[in-house]
Structures are given as C-alpha cells and as structure tokens.
Design goal:
Radius of gyration: 14 Å
Strand content: over 45%
Shape: globular
Distance between the termini: 37 Å
Order of helices and strands: EEEEEEEEEHEE
Length: about 130
C-alpha cells in the first residue's frame, strides 16, 4: 500500500488555480514534516512548501509566496496545496513527501529536496500540473 497518494493536478490557464491533495494511509501525518516538491525533466527537484507538525513552522519557496497555501485536514489525514495565480513556470510534476518530524524541520526539508534513498520517509507518486494557454 502506497502511504501517500497525490491528486488534483491538471491543465490550467495562466492565472488559474488548482488544489493538490496528498492523502496518507498507514501513517499519521501528525508525526511528520510534510512537503510539496516539484520537478521538471532535466532539472533538480525543488521544495515548494513544507510544514512541520512538530513546531508548527511553514516554509514557502520565494516564487510561490502569496500564491500557494499549504493546509491540512487532520481527520482526513490529508494535506493540500492551494495554488492560485498559476504561471507557466509552475508547470511540473508535483510530489508530496514526509520525514519524521524529529529528523528535520520544514525549512530544511524543503531546501534539501526531501528524503533521499536510504533516509526515513515516503514519497507519493506525483501529479502533473501544466499551466498553459
């Protein structure tokens, strides 16, 4: 069973909005730092927004501040990324990932690109976001 499943991607015109969801099963998000990452073929994966349930901190990449909002629904064990005022440069495959909160912080997780092979954590399968007219 895949612990994290993303949904909500799609094709949207510039200026439009999408809401991505990341549903967790088999793990409780309360115990994790949760992050949204994106990757374009040929480029490095980058952290978009991360939140820590340990200290309540939230990190946003500069280019998405004021446009993207990270939220969570605890009873549903699900997190969301509300993306407004989308730009063509937001086009990417978006992934959610988690690491145990005692191993990292929101900012560190986003800046280091999420859990790597051999590190504790999980990745979702990704959802494609395309911003184009």
């Amino acid at each position: 069973q895949v612990p994290l499943v993303e949904s909500g991607g799609g094709l949207v015109e510039p200026g439009g909005s999408l809401r991505l969801s990341c549903a967790a099963s088999g793990i409780f998000l309360d115990y994790y730092v949760i992050g949204w990452f994106r990757q374009v073929p040929g480029k490095e994966r980058e952290g978009v927004s991360c939140i820590s349930n340990g200290d309540g901190s939230t990190y946003y990449k500069d280019s998405v501040k004021g446009r993207f909002t990270f939220s969570r629904d605890n009873p549903k064990n699900t997190v969301y990324l509300q993306m407004n005022s989308l730009k063509p440069e937001d086009t990417a495959t978006y992934y959610c990932a988690v690491r145990p909160h005692y191993l990292t912080t929101a900012e560190r997780m986003c800046l280091t690109g999420g859990p790597t092979t051999g590190e504790a954590g999980y990745w979702g399968q990704g959802t494609q976001v395309t911003v184009s007219s």
